[in-house]
Each structure stands twice: as C-alpha cells, then as structure tokens.
Automatic annotation (TrEMBL), chain A:
Listed NCBIfam families: CPA3_mnhG_phaG, PRK12674.1-2
Family: Belongs to the CPA3 antiporters (TC 2.A.63) subunit G family.
Matches recorded under PANTHER family: ANTIPORTER SUBUNIT MNHG2-RELATED
Taxonomic source organism: Nocardiopsis tropica
Transmembrane segments: 12-32, 44-64, 70-95
Pfam families: PhaG_MnhG_YufB
Protein name stated in the entry: Monovalent cation/H(+) antiporter subunit G
Alphabetical keyword list: Membrane, Transmembrane, Transmembrane helix
Automatic annotation (TrEMBL), chain B:
UniProt subcellular location: Cell membrane
Keywords, comma-separated and alphabetical: Cell membrane, Membrane, Transmembrane, Transmembrane helix, Transport
InterPro entries per the UniProt record, alphabetical: MrpF/PhaF-like
Annotated TM spans: 6-25, 34-53, 59-78
Domain of life: Bacteria
Coiled-coil intervals, chain numbering: none
Organism per entry: Streptomonospora nanhaiensis
Protein name: Monovalent cation/H+ antiporter complex subunit F
Main localization of the protein described in the UniProt heading: membrane
Keyword Transmembrane: yes
Signal peptide boundaries: none
Family: Belongs to the CPA3 antiporters (TC 2.A.63) subunit F family.
Region annotation (Disordered) ranges: 87-108
Membrane topology: Multi-pass membrane protein
C-alpha cells in the first residue's frame, strides 16, 4: 500500500476519532446541564453510542495498513453490536425504575401517556385492590 | 497531526471530568449509575484511541469485556433500586412528605 493511501486513511481515521471524542464531550456536558433524570438518560444513550461507533470505525480504518486480522475487525463489529443492542435496554430499564419509584419530575414532562394508561387500567380494573406498581 | 491526537485526549479528559462531577453531585443513585455508564463509555473511547494511536490491536478484547460489563452493571443497579422504593422518601431534593402515597409501596 502506497504512502499516500496510508496518509489518507490516517486522516479519515483521525477525523472519526475526533468526532467520537467530541460526542463523548457532548454527552458529558448534557449530563451536567440537563435538569432531569430522563433527559440525562437521553444524552447518555444517544451521543455516547454514536461517538463510540465513530471511534470503532476510526480504529478499524487505522488498523488497515497494519497486518489485517479478521479477528480484529470482528471484535470491533462485536463491540459496536453489543453497544447498540444493550444501551437502549439499559436506558429503558433505568427510566422505568425511575418512573415507577417516583423520581420523575412531573412538571418537566410535556405529556405523560404512561400515567394516562395506568389510570385507564386502574379504572378498568374497578379501582379495588392495590394498584400495580411493579418495577 | 500530533495536535489532533492531543485534542482527542483533552476532549476525552473533559468528558470524564464532567461525568465525575455528575457522579459527585447526582441527587439519586440512578443518576450516579447513569454517570458510571457514561464514564465507562468514555473509557471505551479512550482505550480505542490508544489502540488507534499505536496501531495496537491487542487491547480490543478489553473493549468487548467493558461494553458487556457496563450493561450488566447498569441493569443490576436499576434492579437494586427497584427492590427498595422507600429510599425515595429520604431523597433530600423533595420536601418531607407526610406519608408515602399508596402508589409507592407494594413492590414485589
């Protein structure tokens, strides 16, 4: 592989890495500035995962001129796949626990469809018995 | 090109500092779990930047382990919080409620 191709690949890789680090910083800033647990969860899930994917792409491009092993690229793809699959699940469960244990500020929510659903279900059940608050 | 690598390191360091700040001031345990998640992703990014800088693929399995560890950690913290809803009454951000509302008990 000629030197010019390697230089171009390096520049692409370093731009990907820079964008990934910038998105990590965005996640940190959102973690500080947002007022609510749910909005903080938003910033912890989306920019962080996108930044990590960009960094993984950057590593892959940077490793191309070196001896290319299939397992390296496979590991990178696996890491990205695990992040994309697991981060929404973790965010969803944390948000659910936060809602069910009453840590969500109601005045910061524009429209609370879950509360309407729960109220409708409670009315349909006849109002008797303890309300279901399983978390 | 060297200055770009330094910029990457500085950005990641600033992100980690902000995450640690949220972990210190976070009002509830879920905020802290969330910031631990962000810190772990920042660590993933940093280790990846190391691997890219040295063209060194030996640390890539570490990325795999860390990405699964973060998931397990945040899930278990969330389940741990769900087990004891009475901790919610003791959070200092709320005025002292006279009695817990009937919706808050009853976690099986």
């Amino acid at each position: 592989m000629s030197d010019q191709v390697v230089a171009v690949l390096d520049w692409i890789a370093i731009l990907c890495l820079l964008a990934g680090a910038l998105l990590s910083l965005v996640a940190g800033v959102g973690l500080i500035r947002f007022p609510d647990l749910l909005s903080r969860m938003h910033t912890a899930a989306k920019p962080q995962v996108l930044g990590l994917l960009l960094v993984l792409v950057g590593i892959g491009i940077r490793l191309i001129p070196e001896e290319t092993n299939v397992f390296n690229i496979g590991t990178l793809i696996l890491v990205g796949l695990f992040q994309v699959v697991t981060v929404p699940v973790a965010g969803h469960i944390a948000a659910r626990v936060a809602y069910r244990t009453g840590r969500v500020h109601a005045d910061l929510i524009v429209r609370d469809e879950l509360a309407e659903r729960l109220a409708a279900k409670r009315r349909a059940d006849g109002g008797g018995g303890p309300p279901e608050t399983r978390a | 090109m060297n200055i770009l690598w330094i910029a990457i390191g500085l950005l990641l360091g600033a992100a980690v500092l902000l995450g640690v700040t949220r972990m210190v001031i976070g009002p509830s345990i879920l905020d802290r779990a969330l910031s631990v998640d962000v810190l772990l992703a920042s660590a993933l990014t940093g280790i990846g930047a190391y691997a890219a800088f040295h063209r060194d693929p030996t640390v890539l399995p570490t990325l795999l382990v860390l990405s699964l560890l973060g998931f397990i950690g945040s899930i278990s913290i969330a389940k741990f919080v769900a087990r004891r809803p009475e901790e919610h009454v003791a959070t200092p951000t709320e005025p002292p409620a006279p009695a817990p509302a009937p919706e808050e008990g009853g976690s099986s």
